């Protein structure tokens, strides 16, 4: 479904059958307006033209579960969880131009456009694979147990990795590919989001029903109670508000980014 951001109404629906089976992740290139949907069950990425809603299906690797875009190079990176690879799609031709071997069970992926580096969280091997977007070389970086999500701060070039198994967030220097520190958070951290304006990182701890707020300047964590089984988190960098999707309680917690206080709970 395509939602109009001004009216919050469904503006269009991409017809059933034009997207692959088991769509699990989505990313947008703000420059070209193309939308990329990773279809886990059909081993493909559906490319949606943001103007016409026409679609193109691109075969990738086994069980693609995450996708990220570099809008500067117009390259799309797809983490294939079942194959331990990343497919690189050229945004102009909608064709796979490279396949890069990474760690076991790549579950999340993030891009630093400034560095032209791609960071892949490998849940099965407890590593992050750093891909040089220019020459394709890879560097493995050891992190915590079962890394489930990764985010990049494009201002500080720090990378944050949520380690689901060890209850920590690993901070990596994106320029040197070295670990700076590991920050204790809640239980079962499964998702994180980053506000580059405030330099704060928000970690959804699925089994402890809270969000850890990390100050990116000091690496000091603060805990905020939310709903049951928080599974996803998103940020509005303009308003500074944080939105936490609570799977267990079927609601969304809204956090004030300035005070770290819960501003509202919205039933969904």
TrEMBL record:
Which portions of this protein are annotated as coiled-coil regions?
Answer: none
Query: Which InterPro entries does the annotation name?
Result: Host-pathogen_enzymatic-act, N2O_reductase_N, WD40/YVTN_repeat-like_dom_sf, YVTN_b-propeller_repeat
User: Gene3D superfamilies attached here?
Assistant: YVTN repeat-like/Quinoprotein amine dehydrogenase
Query: NCBIfam families under this entry?
Result: beta_rpt_yvtn
Protein name as it appears in the record: SMP-30/Gluconolactonase/LRE-like region domain-containing protein
Organism field: marine sediment metagenome
Task: Show the taxonomic lineage.
Answer: unclassified sequences, metagenomes, ecological metagenomes
């Amino acid at each position: 479904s395509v939602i109009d951001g001004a009216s919050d109404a469904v503006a269009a629906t991409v017809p059933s059958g034009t997207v692959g089976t088991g769509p699990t992740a989505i990313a947008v290139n703000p420059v070209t307006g193309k939308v990329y949907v990773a279809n886990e069950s059909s081993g493909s990425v559906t490319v949606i033209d943001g103007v016409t809603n026409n679609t193109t299906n691109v075969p990738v690797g086994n069980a693609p579960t995450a996708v990220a875009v570099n809008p500067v190079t117009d390259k799309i990176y797809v983490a294939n969880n079942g194959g331990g690879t990343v497919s690189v799609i050229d945004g102009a031709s909608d064709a796979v131009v490279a396949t890069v071997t990474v760690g076991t069970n790549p579950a999340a992926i993030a891009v630093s456009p400034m560095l032209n580096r791609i960071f892949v969280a490998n849940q099965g091997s407890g590593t992050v694979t750093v891909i040089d977007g220019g020459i394709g070389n890879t560097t493995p970086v050891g992190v915590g147990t079962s890394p489930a999500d990764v985010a990049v701060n494009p201002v500080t070039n720090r990378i944050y990795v949520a380690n689901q198994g060890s209850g920590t967030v690993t901070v990596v220097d994106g320029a040197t590919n070295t670990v700076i520190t590991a920050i204790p958070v809640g239980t079962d951290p499964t998702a994180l989001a980053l506000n580059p304006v405030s330099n704060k990182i928000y970690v959804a701890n699925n089994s402890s029903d809270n969000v850890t707020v990390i100050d990116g300047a000091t690496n000091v964590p603060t805990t905020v109670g939310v709903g049951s089984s928080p599974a996803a988190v998103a940020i509005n960098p303009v308003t500074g508000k944080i939105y936490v999707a609570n799977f267990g309680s079927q609601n969304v917690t809204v956090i004030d980014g300035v005070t770290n206080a819960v501003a509202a709970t919205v039933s969904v």
